[in-house]
Each structure stands twice: as C-alpha cells, then as structure tokens.
Amino acid sequence: MTTKRVPWDVYFMQIAVQIATRSTCDRKHVGAVIVRDKTILSTGYNGSVRGMPHCDDVGHIMEDSHCIATVHAEANAIIQAAKNGTCINNADIYVTASPCWNCFKLIANSGIKRIFYREFYRDERVLNIASKAGIEMLQVDI
After folding, report:
1. Beta-strand relationship, 114-119 and 92-97
2. Residues 115, 135 contacting (CB under 8 angstroms)
3. Phi and psi for 122 in degrees, rounded to 5?
4. 9 neighbors 116 (Cβ within 8 angstroms)
5. Is the pLDDT of residue 41 over 90?
6. 3: alpha, beta or left, given left = phi > 0 and alpha = psi -120 to 50?
7. Which of 74, 119, 124, 136 does the annotation list as catalytic?
8. Is 136 annotated in the active site?
9. How far is 107 from 93, CA to CA, in rounded Å?
10. Tens digits of per-residue pLDDT, 64-120?
C-alpha cells in the first residue's frame, strides 16, 4: 500500500507553521524556514531582541500600529544562518505570512531566490518589486 506524501512545499510550510508557535509577540505569530535542495538551512520566528523581555510578558512597543519590539521571523532566520556560517545564497524561504518591506529587502540582498508564503500580509510593494528583483513569490495553501 502506497502512502500519499505531502508535496515538499506543503511539508516546509507546515514546518514554518510549527516554528511560528515559538513566537513571543501575540499580535502575529510568524515562522520562517530557509531551505536549499530540500534541506533546512535555518529557521526563525518573530520574537524580542535577545535578552530583552517578550511582548507576551510586558506588552508591545507600538509605532504606526505595528509592534516594533520584535525581530521578524525572516530576519531571525537570516541572522541565524549568518551566525552559524550557513550560506543561504540561491535558497528558498517559507514564511507563514508574506514579508514586510524591510524583511523583503533583507531576503533579496541575502540571495534568496524564492519566497513561499501562506497568507498575504499587508505590503503590495513586495509583490510588485519581487519580479523586478528576480525573486519568485509563491503562495502555498496547506
């Protein structure tokens, strides 16, 4: 009997969803997984600056209706790769929500070539600029 296996894109997005459960800002739980050749290179979730209190514990620092106390999941995944000396050039990133403008710029400059996202989140510029930057944006339904 053959077992039906989930496609790779669904598999990695499900992992991103699980990673999001570690988020420490209750305004939006986001998880990210950086992958190349079906191998996980790095992960990240949105959370406070290392050593600082979590939004869930002490509240939010709000600016223009956004909490700015956290480092976003995509940025944390890129930082983790850099910290550990892991090359992410030509990799893919799976994110539970499409990246904000600042995270998109980090992703683009890190050499990531495809962004898989579960839900669209706020910033149309990302969709418009991605193709010009040679980055594919793909929505994954799970």
Report:
1. parallel
2. yes
3. 70, -50
4. yes
5. yes
6. beta
7. 74
8. no
9. 8
10. 888 888 999 999 999 999 999 999 999 999 999 999 999 999 999 999 999 999 999
